[in-house]
Write a structure and sequence with these properties.
Layout: E1 6-12, E2 15-22, H1 37-46, E3 49-52, E4 56-57, H2 65-81, E5 85-87, H3 89-103, H4 116-134, E6 138-152, E7 155-158, E8 161-164, E9 174-188, E10 194-209, E11 216-217, H5 227-242
Parallel strand pairs: 3-5, 3-6, 4-6
Antiparallel strand pairs: 1-2, 6-7, 6-9, 7-8, 9-10, 10-11
Helix pairs in contact: 2-5, 3-4
Length: 249
């Protein structure tokens, strides 16, 4: 799996520009990380109803919330087709917000930061209510994360996909690019323990040629604008969970 990259973003003249990038380490990021088939089989055996949460991101996606919603919708459809009962993100969010208002919320009214002690107490109460009223055994958390992908001869590969790097097609040219992937995790509702994680690549955001200066940045109008790539990311992230493994045959 590609290593997560911390990034600060701004919108300038309709283009998304990278201002600050940091990365602890980087891999070639060609295929999603293998999934433990025993864990996958356990999820299929123990989880029958899932609550989908709103898709989060470390990029400001206010420009294209309608495109972000499609990830939640495709996730719901794929999981329903696989036999899971699905509570969609709208219902999950409305229910959780209602319960939090009743309990007083878990953010410090002075600092605005999450009160971790209060969060621990209230999370369990909200989980019990979700289980009792919505019937969920697990929550599905989609996250649109930024990763760093190396590229060579104009092609970047990460998290099961590849993409062309603008200006990098010269034979032997290489560099690195910032890209976006869907990180999908499923957590046990009662304990919040992660049961499943898988990523699926979406698209490049910006690229840098080795030894060169400047960036080739993605116009905001093209951010998450290819429905087929968005659906592919969901399918890559869900693939081990949706196919029958040898353990189930």
């Amino acid at each position: 799996m590609s290593q997560r990259m911390a990034a600060t973003w701004r919108t300038d003249a309709g283009r998304i520009l990278v201002l600050a990038l940091s990365l602890a380490s980087c891999s070639s990021a060609q295929l999603p990380e293998p999934v433990d088939e025993t864990a996958v089989a356990s999820v299929r055996a123990s989880v029958h109803t899932v609550c989908i949460e709103r898709a989060g991101s470390d990029v400001d996606l206010a420009c294209c919330r309608d495109r972000v919603v499609t990830f939640e919708q495709v996730l719901a459809a794929r999981l329903a087709d696989a036999g899971f009962k699905v509570v969609d993100a709208n219902v999950t969010t409305a229910f959780r917000d209602r319960e939090l208002r009743k309990l007083g919320g878990w953010y410090d009214p002075v600092t605005g930061a999450r009160d971790e002690a209060r969060y621990s107490r209230l999370r369990a109460d909200v989980a019990k209510a979700m289980s009792a009223e919505l019937g969920c055994q697990a929550v599905v958390r989609p996250y649109l994360g930024v990763v760093r992908s190396n590229w060579r001869n104009g092609v970047a590969r990460w998290d099961g996909v590849s993409d062309q790097v603008a200006g990098g097609a010269t034979l032997g040219a290489h560099g690195w690019a910032s890209a976006m992937s869907l990180w999908l995790s499923i957590h046990d509702l009662a304990s919040d323990r992660e049961l499943y994680f898988r990523s699926g690549g979406i698209q490049l955001l910006a690229g840098k040629i080795k030894g060169g200066s400047g960036w080739t940045a993605l116009p905001e109008s093209r951010l998450l604008a290819a429905p087929e790539r968005n659906r592919q990311a969901v399918d890559l992230a869900l693939e081990p969970l949706l196919r029958k493994s040898a353990l189930e045959n």
